[in-house]
Amino acid sequence: MADNAEVPLKKAEKQAKQAAEKAAKAAKQAALPVVGGKKSEDIIGMTVTKVDNFSAWYQEVVIKAEMIEYYNEIAGFFILRPTSMFIWAEIRKWFQERIELMGVEETSFPMFLSAKSLEKEKDHVEGFAPELAWFTCPYLHSGDKDLEVPVAVRPTSEAVMYPYYSKWIRSHRDLPFRLNQWNSVVRWEAKQTTPFLRAREFLWQEGHTAHLTEELAGVEVLEILELYAGVYEQLLAVPVVRGRKTEKEKFAGGYYTTTVEGYIPSNGRGIQGGTSHCLGQNFSKMFDIKIEDPNPKDGEKAKHLHVWQNSWGLSTRVIGVMVMIHGDDKGLVLPPRIAKLQAIIIPVGINKNTSPEDKKKHYDDLQDIKDTLKKAGVRSDYDIRDGYTPGWKFSDWELKGVPLRLEYGPKDAAQKVISFARRDTGEKGTIDIASLSTEIPTLLEKIQSDMYIKAEASFRAHRINITNWEEVVPSLDAKNVVLIPHCLAEKCEDKIKDLTAGKADEQEGPAELKAPSMGMKSLCIPFEQPAGIEKGVTKCLNPECGALAEQWCMFGRSY
Amino acid sequence: MADNAEVPLKKAEKQAKQAAEKAAKAAKQAALPVVGGKKSEDIIGMTVTKVDNFSAWYQEVVIKAEMIEYYNEIAGFFILRPTSMFIWAEIRKWFQERIELMGVEETSFPMFLSAKSLEKEKDHVEGFAPELAWFTCPYLHSGDKDLEVPVAVRPTSEAVMYPYYSKWIRSHRDLPFRLNQWNSVVRWEAKQTTPFLRAREFLWQEGHTAHLTEELAGVEVLEILELYAGVYEQLLAVPVVRGRKTEKEKFAGGYYTTTVEGYIPSNGRGIQGGTSHCLGQNFSKMFDIKIEDPNPKDGEKAKHLHVWQNSWGLSTRVIGVMVMIHGDDKGLVLPPRIAKLQAIIIPVGINKNTSPEDKKKHYDDLQDIKDTLKKAGVRSDYDIRDGYTPGWKFSDWELKGVPLRLEYGPKDAAQKVISFARRDTGEKGTIDIASLSTEIPTLLEKIQSDMYIKAEASFRAHRINITNWEEVVPSLDAKNVVLIPHCLAEKCEDKIKDLTAGKADEQEGPAELKAPSMGMKSLCIPFEQPAGIEKGVTKCLNPECGALAEQWCMFGRSY
């Protein structure tokens, strides 16, 4: 930081102190969602720390960094503000470009589903029934005579789309058949809702494809999973573990489910990041989606073959995971690639004694710097709001997670440099004005990469291979997820959940993991398997199981 | 077309004839929307002409060109297929890029609105009440105890968004405040629905902005209107007239409405293309969106000022207008800029006598041509489906509206040329293979421009300035819209509608304009005013009015 920032900083400190006092008063209110038409802007800055009360911290950061507004009209709904929508738009562009290359086309199906068609399917397939629980939510009735049957808003679109797949897919030439839509879906969750992670309406993409063979379907499942991993790793700087869901945790109507699983260090919980399902032929049989065998056996008549289907979805949940992992006690920390504003330029050392001419000259420089950065592909702006000290501005942009702060004062100008402060590490330094257009993009990429490396190291350190059952619960309590040799049986998973759940009064540790502590669930069977399972010898780690272990399975307390 | 295409063409003609016979049989069915799980692919090609039955033609073209599928579950809903979604995605990219430069940010508000909040507004403002008629549509009820109030799906988001504007806009520094969202809205239309033009759910963007002054708001209203005109003119090759709506036709809750108006030559009807509203201070007073006056009068305390608001929306309707204007009896005709596939390459002259080596060499050429075109930024593909004659393929791609057909046979190969046929005019010719990468993009731009010029000439020829009342109805019957000197009074418009409506048995002309013929409505007051109105002298053209004319107003039968 440039020396000439010191004077205004002292003022800023005073102001920040006053703000902190004000904020402390409002702390109770801040820990709650903003309610009604009530104005919340008089509470400045974060009032809760990440360690003290993680869930209140999260709630506060998504509101104060202006990512989310609670929708007062109906519980469980959220407004996504521009900071969030910019991230979603970047993800959309990145993903859309890649699935287009794969030959996936865009479609848009209606948001409503008639209750009649739901009942039809209910009768048909037992395995699909659990998914239909989603539909026990909002039903529409209309004053219009036209509408004789009640309809529901889609919770996902399998039942909306597949009747038409049966109509459109008539020959092997129509395969692979791949459609995707970007929309919002409604799931009337009974559980506590959380911004991004669990909302009653959320934005997502849902891809629905059909293939000639299991193998071809399988290739796509993994291609898409790799794109989901790419969204996390390359855009959001969030590490994930790729793997398959167990039978218990897979998509109920499908054949198998692959997943990317994330990890929240603050509470040691796993979180499902995005799933790519192979549906097998379950739905194609249900909806009669078939073609004539293009390669009939010699001398035999061509049979009808049911197609192999996939479905895959990624939602705005990804944004919440990113916030939880990177945010700190000053607020949001955004990875540069998805930050709407990557660098904020703040003038310092401009005060009452600065002549109007000098001030103008200085502000012209800011514009030049911004122009230079724009040409270099950097999204930047300067903050010349009157009536705010540099220190106040520093805090404000830190709260909002801007990856890089650039300070520019008369002394910087004299030395032809600009001072910088990284949001992620707080590291400071100077850069020659002449080399801004190369140095700043490099620095932003360094921030992006360092954020990923840090998060990856944290996840790696908290993913513990365990071969002694006694170590499982202590390891969970130490905020780890665990890999254990497992038989992969559903019943055994249920038992493991029971065995690892604790009663509140037995537990130590942070309040939020008490009351009572959560049992662990299987997160996935990682594709990358550690060594150590000897087929036919190694047993399932569950002491009450006794079966042989099939694979290492990742378990954890989870969202 | 290359000579060597002749042989397969004869086969193709035979096949096409058979197809036509088959199609004729199915004609009755084709004129109806596809119903239920019924397969429609055995009806090949168009069975209705644009002149004979325009509305059946339209219905058939949007289905057979695979733009739309009727949603059988619920009347008035449509599935948008990839051809349509590609167009919408191109429009979205084009428009989004431009509003971002204006500083408009993206947001996403919930789809539901509580009935309670609707009632509150109902009490507040009479002027807004007519819009609330939209809300007498679907109401949600839930088994969930959480949901105590019924909610509606948004028909537009003023009432959803503006309570938050009042929270977020606190100072003149927050202005201009500009948000836009891309979503779908639901209006439970009682009228007959039509694909794209009137659907119960449709995709659109809705922009909602706030400004310090009327003047600043007004500048944006016109900037956006110009972008809407650009979508039509530059992307869809559709001419529009820019103008202001009359008091009778403006957005009920607003201050004034600007509009781009289109024209459908086949039935002479006008169609509203997109509207950009200045809401004035009506909503800001209703929702209490205000700031402190940044320029208080000397010695006076700063007053609170209500902001000036705009809202503006463009929907998938634009696609329907484009189809109606450019389509012909062979099917869809797409302007190149929004065609997913701009050029289709069809091998010709390949038959039983062609050696496998020659065939392979020929098909390799097709790939080279496609690669060349891709590098030149042309979206192309080749059609090497076995078992289809070139002629059948020609018809198929004509039906789907691909702007340019490229035919490539052995004779073309020998001469190092490719033969082309334009979809819009049928014009044929050849291009040297060596100059494909410059000639094809140029030709596509020529097609784009010619399509616009043709449509523009048609609209211009059917926009008649009339100063003799007796000529009005004959002019409408001749499929014109008319500009007349008008007093702009609401009452007079009602009267004009009555006076120009005819009873079915009095009318000549196509069946669809009978039963009974529609009275004319005001479409807009064009910004470009013809000469001839003498202030204080020229009278309103309505013979029963007697008031003075204010401006030329464009009237027409309309959608």
State the main characteristics.
11-stranded mixed sheet, 559 residues, 5-stranded mixed sheet, 35% helix, homodimer, disordered N terminus, alpha+beta
Plain-language structure description:
- Two copies of one chain form a homodimer.
- The first copy, chain A, is of the alpha+beta class and 559 residues long.
- Chain A has helices at 6-25, 27-30, 54-64, 82-101, 115-124, 129-132, 158-168, 214-235, 282-286, 317-326, 356-375, 390-399, 410-415, 436-461, 472-477, 490-500, and strands at 68-70, 78-80, 105-106, 112-114, 139-141, 151-153, 177-186, 201-211, 241-244, 256-264, 269-280, 290-292, 304-306, 308-315, 343-347, 380-382, 404-408, 417-422, 428-432, 463-465, 481-486, 521-526, 551-556.
- In chain A, the strands form five sheets. Chain A has an eleven-stranded mixed sheet. A five-stranded mixed sheet of chain A has the order 16-15-17-18-19, sandwiched between helices.
- In chain A, β18 and β19 (428-432) form a beta hairpin.
- In chain A, 46% of the residues are buried.
- At the A-B interface, β2, α4, β3, β4 and β5 of A face β2, α4, β3, β4 and β5 of B.
- Chains A, B: Residues 2-30 form a coiled coil.
- Chains A, B: Keywords: Aminoacyl-tRNA synthetase, ATP-binding, Coiled coil, Ligase, Nucleotide-binding, Protein biosynthesis.
The span between the termini of chain A is 40 Å
SS-derived structural category of chain A: alpha+beta
Gyration radius of chain A (Cα, Å) is 27 Å
Percentage of β-strand residues of chain A: 15-25%
Task: State the largest interface.
Answer: A-B, 64 and 64 residues
E-strand count of chain A: 23
Q: What kind of oligomer do you see?
A: homodimer
Kindly state the mean pLDDT of chain A as a whole number?
Answer: 87
Q: Quick one: biggest sheet of chain A?
A: 11 strands, mixed
Give the low-confidence spans of chain A: 1-42, 123-148
